[in-house]
Amino acid sequence: MRTKTLVLTALSSLSAFGLMAQTSTNVYSLNAVGYINVSVVPGFNMISDQLWASGGNSISNVLSDSNDAIDGAEVFKWTGTGFVSDFANNLVATSPSGWESGGQITVNPGEAVWFYSPIATNLTFVGTVPQGTNTVSIGKGFNLISSPVPQSGDLVTLMGLTNENNGDAVFVYNNPGGYSTYSYSTVTGNYGYGANWNAPVNSPIPSSNPNYGDPQVNVGQGFWYEATAPITYTRVFSVNQ
Questions:
Q1: pTM for the full model?
Q2: Nearest Cα to 134, choosing from 171, 160, 169?
Q3: C-alpha distances in Å from residue 21, one per residue of 97, 138, 145, 219, 223
Q4: Rounded distance, CA 3 to CA 29, Å?
């Protein structure tokens, strides 16, 4: 229960600062290479880079501040027990990327981070589109993750997250609107995949839709997954889909 308390405290604290997911994203691909544009607003944004970047997916590579483009930005990554962070300040940072602690935090496909931005801006991620079998390990408790492939829409029926535990939950943050909480229960669930999901009151799709109740995410957007037991999220994907 201590871990749950820590994460719920983090959720509450970050929300108070105006946490939000990106307001608009686009993905384009050609021969399995493409880019993702993620629009962020002032304050906190939950983001993911769902492409494999040449040179690796450390923030020093995919979110460089070498030209002062994101000066004042801060990245927070959940470790399972707390956050690690790095601050973009090209004026004082000793690393070429402009990150004070060297920009070693990674944001791989399937991972997500909180990105604090002092201004509204667009982040562009470039790389290879993940294809074939992609897996995300989800541990017991809270996990800050994303779909391992650049898709938007139904996280369950479209993106293959179908091996939930009874009692699992997904927290998706959008602004305006705040958190949408989707919980999976074979006892109380009535909607979505297997008719086992409890939809939030602010569900983005109508109750007449057969996938009503399934979690909804955007390209480049992360989410919290609370698991009652470890699971593996497997997504088989092709750019021809």
A1: 0.86
A2: 160
A3: 24, 21, 13, 10, 9
A4: 39
Quote the tokens at residue 55.
């040179």
Residue percentage of the chain with pLDDT more than 90: 68
What tokens appear for 142 in the block?
A: 């809270």
Residues 208 and 163 in one domain: yes
Residue closest to 143 by CA, chosen among 175, 101, 185, 113: 113
Give me the sign of the Cα torsion angle 180, 184, 188, 192: positive
Neighbours of 197 (CB within 10 A): 27
Per-residue pLDDT tens for 26-84?
554 445 889 999 999 998 999 999 999 999 999 999 999 888 889 999 999 999 999 99
- Helix, strand, coil fractions of the chain, as percent rounded to 5: 10, 40, 50
User: Which amino acid, one-letter code, is at 178?
Assistant: G
How many structural domains comprise the chain?
2
Question: 């009535």: which residue's tokens?
Answer: 190
Domain residues for the domain of 82 are 2-128
Provide the 3-class DSSP secondary structure of residue 144: strand
C-beta of residue 209 within 8 angstroms of C-beta of residue 38? no
Task: Provide the CA 234 distance to its chain's centre, in angstroms.
Answer: 16
Q: Which residues sit opposite 109 in a β-bridge?
A: none
The better pLDDT of the pair 98, 53 is held by 53
Beta-carbon count within 10 A of 181 CB: 17
Whether the CB-CB separation of 231 and 165 falls below 8 Å is answered with yes
Does 94 share its domain with 138? no
